[in-house]
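Most newcomers find our protein records easier to grasp once they have seen one. Sequence and backbone structure share a record, each on its own labelled line. Nothing more is needed to start thinking about how sequence determines fold. As an example, a complete record with its sequence and its structure tokens follows.
=====
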Amino acid sequence: MAVALSGGVDSATAAFLLLQAGYEVFGVTMLVTGEEGEKAAEVAAKLKIPHFVFDLRQEFAQEVIKPFVEAYLAGLTPNPCVWCNRKLKFGLLLEKALKLGADFLATGHYARVWFDPARERYLLARGKDRRKDQSYFLYSLNQQQLARVLFPLGGRTKAENLLLVKKLGLPLREESQDVCFLKGGDYRELIKAMAQEKVKPGPILDPQGKKIGTHRGLAFYTIGQRRGLGHAWGKPYYVLALDPRRNALIVGPEEMLYRPSCRVEGINFILFERPPGPFTAAVQVRYTSPAVPATLFPEGEAVRVEFASPQRAVTPGQAAVFYQEDLVVGGGTIAPYGSDG
């Protein structure tokens, strides 16, 4: 059994629980920022398990950081954790763990996975601790990946895990809640460093198309943003849309942030291979938002989501994940405005 060790509380707890359950465990760590190996090695030494480190910094730069910057340049607000899970953690790292002889790769995610004989599919569900649930970031895993993963923390709470690791005396750090490669910094600084020459000032337009200011570059803004617009219009204006074709930033009053629908592309279904037709689900349009009722209409390789009530700041580039009760039906990426009809 391989456990993806980061040096944090959750992955260390997962490894300890598997050891307690009688599994033969070894740790695997992927270097993506260059700082993960030492802490993970300390945990492995404390648990007395073998530990293997794989330098995936080049792959991480190509599969996560580069698309992250490109998405912002295209007027989108990306979710790099989804890409990292699909391509690296449950892609390359899983492959390497299997080659070392593991049957499964376990991680410290708060989510649940199991095989449903009736559906003949592996299912993914929210973790017991809803405040820490991470199923939102895992919607893109396919059946082959789900068949090879374990989430030992899925039925536990964060409080239980913290109490356990304190008793163990492990040299631990808390998992970061931020994008790991930004190290708590501002994504705008990364864009300046990697693609400043592609960031061009342009017009700020009101909802009627009238120019009311100049922006610093579309990559520096996101839907729903109010602060940092650099202008005072006498009333609060928010970013309503980004138009890369015109290099224009559209702003307006808060009530115009609400949208009745969106189009979701790059769909991955987990609950079934393909939906038989329209279906209802609760849709979560960002990690920090609750899932809300909606009706979903399959349209080729995409899905049109009609919300039961208009939703605020539905942001192109972010993940939209579909739930029925605690089960993950599937999910995809919110498409740019105008693609939803």
Q: What stands out?
A: The chain is about 25% helix and 30% strand.
